[in-house]
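Case 409 in the screening queue. Each case pairs one protein sequence with one candidate compound; here the compound is iron/sulfur cluster. For every case the pipeline is the same: read the inputs, emit a complex structure as tokens, and attach any notable structural observations.

Predict complex for case 409.
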Amino acid sequence: MQVEIKKQSFSVTSFYDSAESSYVKEKEIIVIEARNVSSFENYSKEEPFNQLRNIINNKISNAEGLKLIFNSGLCGCGGSHIPLFKKWQAAVPYKPEFLVVNGLEGEPYTYKDYFIMLHYPQLLIEGITISCRLLEINEVYLLVNSAYKLAYENLTKVVSENTSLLKDINIHVMYGPNPDLYIVGEETALLNYIEGKRAEPRLKPPYPHEKGLWNKSTIINNVETLSWIPLLLKSPERFKNKHPKLVTLSGDVKLPGIYEVDMGDSLEKIIDKAEAEDLSFIEVGGISGGLIPKKLININYDVSGLSKLGLHVGSGTIRLFNNTRDPLLEMSKSTEFFKEESCGRCTPCRVGTQELLKFSQQLLNSNETDESINWLHSVSETMQQTSTCGLGKAASVPVVTYLKHFRNL
Ligand code: SF4
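Case 409 output:
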């Protein structure tokens, strides 16, 4: 594993190299530039922790801070897209004791959280500390992907250099598992990992805000979500019409990178930034997202626009493919990935991911039948309705969207 860092750019050898799947063994160097991230660039022009100082000095009261977050409509950027305020509000009656910050970023081809932790560690620590003050939480576990060594070092340095500002808020910066396990990004598997238990999802309910770490109420937020908090306190007008979001654009493009976009813009406008070459099809939402052909890119990039095509925002990852690529092959790689990454705890996912892989291989060999297509749809539905966690619910999305948008099935 080599991670080469340049100013505002980073080159990452896929951190799935050491996992079992032949898909994830594919060696891949991804060079990512931070492009058009104006909110973050503006932050670096001012003194770090200004918004936290405003909270500490009562220039912004807790009530005002919470109101600004509520009005901003800021949503979870780790994949849920649940309004942050709603998540916090559900936890308050349980008196949350822990904040867990998920920086594992296990979704392949996703580097937005890495970008933040590497280049703007003060911003994240400021967002975490403001959240703790608003929620009256003193204990934080910040989980960093084990491949993100420089980011980890930057974060621990910021924490140790600012103890007087953090006061009685303890931020424990921890590495995630090595090699990275995709399933640990699932919120309850993450809790088990922190507790030193086998990292598999828990049954819900109870939800983490009811019984989380060591059975105490726990709030779990993503790195990007909390990093927006100082920015929205400073410039609430940025959130007035459209919700900003970081996306990772990669694939057959001239300008792969991290981009700041507005939710609700057309997908076409967003992907144009990366200058695709001979665009043929797109994967939206990461490997657990779905595939669509180029002709469908004129949709709104937000939860309701994407859901019309069976897609989701996910981790904000968008990959673009040119006309030498085969959507069937990409879909089949996704099924292999999920088969390898399923923790095997529940039957619909354990068996379902095997069935999805078997079916995709039938398609690759042109062996599919009406019967196997019907079986596939039935397996997908069962997985979506009965899997214990998000992995099993998402695993069939690449297959279903491929059949729908490329085969009219
Ligand atoms: S859905 Fe899959 S990954 Fe999630 S608990 Fe069940 S077997 Fe494990």
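Case 409 observations:
- The domain at 46-237 is CATH 3.40.50.11540 (Rossmann fold).
- The chain has a mean pLDDT of 90.
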